Amino acid sequence: MENEEKYMNVAIEEAKKARSIGEVPIGAIIVLNGKIIAKASNRRETEQNAVAHAEIIAIQEACRTLGTWRLENAELYVTLEPCPMCSGAIILSRIKKVVYGASDPKAGCAGTLMNLLSDARFNHQSEVVGGVLADECGELLSQFFRELRRKKKG
Questions:
Q1: Among 22, 74, 118, 136, which residue has the least CB neighbours within 10 Å?
Q2: Which long-range contacts (C-beta less than 8 Å, at least 24 apart) are formed by 124-129?
Q3: Which of 55, 81, 136, 139 is catalytic?
Q4: pLDDT band at 152 (very low <50, low <70, confident <90, very high)
Q5: Which residues of 29-39 are buried (b: 16+ CB within 10 A; e: fewer)?
Q6: Does 147 participate in catalysis according to the annotation?
Q7: Under 8 Å CB-to-CB from 136, ≥6 apart: which residues?
Q8: Which residues bind Zn(2+) (predicted)?
Q9: 109 is in an annotated binding site
Q10: Is 31 helix (H, G, I), strand (E, B) or coil?
């Protein structure tokens, strides 16, 4: 649990980078053999790209770093439970373990709405650990959306 919190804190720093540029504050990192090999934050608004989620960007960076699409022994730490798209990318890249912070009641596919990551019908399953620093991760999102609503009313 200590390492999970340590790495989640790095993902939270990535989420704060996203917030600082007006993005939904979601951050992700990928760890292999105790070393961070990829870091990313949400860039959907910046890039006007529907697939520019933190997890997707981190997976792409990790694949470039390792020179392979197979991330079999890697661990992904993300501040928000992965959506269906990101869960699919996690399965296809063979990530061993996914650790997330806040649950996503609207799109969470690591146990909240469904659990794509552990579905035995796929040819790969990932270990899932949810709720690591959930309050901190959730508060980042809550603050962001409160501020956004305040600005829209303003």
A1: 22
A2: 124/91, 124/92, 124/94, 125/91, 126/90, 126/91, 126/95, 126/96, 126/97, 126/98, 127/96, 127/97, 127/98, 128/97, 128/98, 128/99, 128/100, 129/4, 129/97, 129/98, 129/99, 129/100
A3: 55
A4: confident
A5: bbbbeeeebbb
A6: no
A7: 12, 101
A8: 53, 83, 86
A9: no
A10: strand
* Dist CA 26 CA 40 (whole Å): 9
C-alpha 74/C-alpha 31 separation (Å) is 6
For residues 54-83, average pLDDT: 98
Which class for 59: exposed (0-12), middle (13-18), buried (19 or more C-beta within 10 A)? buried
Cα angle, residue 28 at apex, residues 25 and 34 outer, rounded to 5°: 145
Q: Is 124 annotated as a binding residue?
A: no
What whole-number distance in Å separates Cα of residue 55 and Cα of residue 4? Answer: 17
83 is in an annotated binding site: yes
- What pairing do the DSSP bridges indicate for beta strands 75-80 and 97-102? parallel
Query: pTM of the full predicted structure?
Result: 0.96
